[in-house]
Design goal:
Blueprint (H helix, E strand, L loop, with lengths): L1 H14 L6 H12 L3 H19 L10
Length: 65
């Protein structure tokens, strides 16, 4: 779960033009390790939706912030 969330973070940051350097990746890894299972799942789902939207495979859900 942690690695898949980190992979998604790296992909989103790269696509947004703000890739993580080694220090940023280490910091993000520490943040992810501090998340509860529910928080990690929610973050992973949000990042997946962002990637799907970026790829044009789904429309954004206007009911979500």
């Amino acid at each position: 779960m942690i690695q898949s969330l980190l992979d998604l973070v790296v992909r989103v940051r790269t696509l947004s033009g703000r890739p993580l350097d080694d220090a940023g990746l280490d910091q993000m890894r520490q943040r992810v390790l501090g998340l509860s299972q529910a928080e990690a799942t929610a973050q992973r789902n949000t990042l997946k939706r962002l990637l799907e939207h970026h790829a044009g495979t789904t429309a954004p859900n206007r009911n979500r912030p």
